[in-house]
Amino acid sequence: MDRRRFDMDGNPRTPESTQDQARPAEAAASQQAQAEGAAPEGAADAERQRLEAELEATRRRVDELARAYQAVNKDREEFKQRLTRERERMMDVERGNVAVSLLEAIDELDRCLTMSGQEASSSLGQGVKMIRDGLLSKVQSLGIERLQLVGQPFDPNTAEASDMEITPQPEEDQRVVAEVRAGYRMKDRIIRPARVKVAKYVPPAQA
Q1: What does pTM read for this prediction?
Q2: Residues 54 and 40: beta-carbon distance below 8 Å
Q3: Residue 185 bridge partners (DSSP)
Q4: Residue 136: CB partners within 8 Å, gap ≥ 6?
């Protein structure tokens, strides 16, 4: 009893029936092969999507770290600049303190020259003037300059009014007419304000 030639009831098989039985088996084998071929492709797509997502996340993390590094580097540079400015400011303060002591000595020498009245003819006066000029040069080498206020409008930020002079000229009102003590400035900072005489306008009495 060859089952390839006879069916279950013992009837002989025809070529058509044999082919009909073979077709479902072939279809099943084809579907299985397609399923086996589709499974690797689907797994590859999922793996590729997972890798792309990881790559994108890594790129975002790298960007965040780069921005954080730039911010830290910027803060460090700003901190260095603040330290430099503070150090320069402290050095200017110390130079100013030293200069004030020299300025007081210069004031004393100026008073000696004014009181003696022999600056041009006396050898002693010439010697005092040389010392005074030498000290003034040292002060100027520190970046200190003397204020020129005579004839300028009075500014309380640069000078102190120690005396007043009456003037009948209205355009001279509140102008510096004389300097009692010189003032000095280092860069943008007044290290010693001047003492000046200020004009005050008073209209003349009516006849």
Answers
A1: 0.53
A2: no
A3: 145, 190
A4: 106, 146
Residue 29 CA from chain centroid, whole number: 75
In whole angstroms, what is the distance from residue 132 CA to residue 105 CA?
8
Amino acid at 193: P
In this structure, which amino acid lies at residue 128? Answer: V
Alpha helices in the chain (DSSP H): 15-116, 123-141
CB atoms within 10 A of CB 22: 10
Here the tokens at position 207 are 């006849």
Report all structural domains of the chain as residue ranges with CATH numbers, in order of start. Answer: 146-207 (2.30.22.10)
Burial (CB count within 10 angstroms: exposed 0-12, middle 13-18, buried 19+), residue 71: exposed
Q: Are 196 and 154 in contact (CB under 8 A)?
A: yes
d(CA 132, CA 135): 5
**Per-residue pLDDT tens for 113-166?**
777 655 556 777 788 888 888 888 888 887 888 889 999 999 999 999 989 999
